Amino acid sequence: MKKRIFILIIPLLIIIFLLLRCPGGKGKRIPVKIIPKPGPSPMSFKDFVAPKKVFRETKDYNVYLVRVDASGGIMWEKIFREPDLEWGEFITPVKGGGYLIAGKTYSKEGYDDGVYLLKADSKGNSVWIKSFGGGPKTGAGQVAQTLDDGYIIAGKTYTDDREDYDVYMSKTDSEGNYDWIKTFGREYYDWGYRGIHAGDSGYITVSQTENPFSGLSDMYIIKTGPKGHEEWSAVFGGEDYDWAYSIARAGDSEFIITGFTYSFGSGNNDIYTVKVDGKGNCVWAKTFGGAGYDDSYCIEAEKDGGFIIAGSTTTFGAGSYDAMLLKVDSNGNCVWVKTYGAAGEDAAYWVVPVKSGGYIFTGVTNSF
User: Fold this and answer.
1) Separation of alpha carbons 306 and 165, rounded Å
2) Does domain 4-365 correspond to CATH entry 2.30.180.10?
3) What is the pLDDT of residues 330-346, one digit of tens each?
4) Whose CA is closest to 253, among 307, 331, 200, 305?
5) 288 forms bridges with which residues in the sheet?
6) Which candidate, 314, 195, 179, places its Cα nearest to that of 260?
7) What is the edge-to-edge ordering of all strands in the sheet holding 139-145?
8) Which of 315, 318, 298, 283 shows the shortest CA–CA distance to 360?
9) Where are the domains of the chain?
10) Pair 339, 314: CB distance under 8 Å
11) If we measure between CA atoms, which residue out of 246, 249, 297, 247 comes closest to residue 41?
């Protein structure tokens, strides 16, 4: 059955889904991704904007931008046609109104050719479009606005001399002109997922590093200075497959990371959430899950010092996979777990606290 994107608003005080027991445990190592925004957070959601890929019989890819109101009705939609093929993969609101879309340009030969940035105003009109990269097969993952109104971008790029991927990181000014481009890599395959402002004058990127011979992977965190020079890096993982998807600020000098682990926990794979200090040292690590498959893809800090995590589970809920929200306190202890879905497969990939209370999350479903 075809999967559909869904968005769900959850009132803070009126949540009618079943409150599950809080599965938990202690681990020794971490998973990861990246999340804080320099703009106002939590965000106020009166209407929503989403980027999409437009597929045509000619195999052209164009960025498709849609704004909907709080009831899901389309307010406007825009298609941005360029000579090359472009994919919009991430969107964030920016200071002063408008949106920034990040993605990649796509070559006719089927490779990522470079980073693609599009700034749109509040009505979806293009303000500027930029594309640049570090070579073939380069693309942006996610982007965050910086304190100087520029943007920090994380992604991946192919390295010909090593014939593998490295973490790609670049910083632009407010007009999308790049200030610097850096690549980081270990011995094997490395991907960057998201970069954020680190609280000082530098940046931190959450990444993945993988050994292609064993097929195993670890979480890979890189902290840079303001010009992109590496200050420290840290790798976390066990004897099996461990993956990091998201990272958020946890105070002025600490970070919270989430993903999943096969190395630790009680099931096939469990949610793995780790807090690190400003030098990348583990403060605490927690696993959450049961006998099935439990994954987390996004984490956001909350005003009460805790965190909200979005993911999926086969351990709990009604279907094969259900979307899941997990609330933890400042020490990583489970406060509550909720699942959403039906008999099909459902997952939550992104969650944001709403200023008026509750949360909004988005993901996929083939239950509805």
Assistant:
1) 35
2) no
3) 999 999 999 998 888 88
4) 200
5) 271
6) 314
7) 139-145, 151-159, 164-172, 178-184
8) 298
9) 4-365
10) no
11) 249
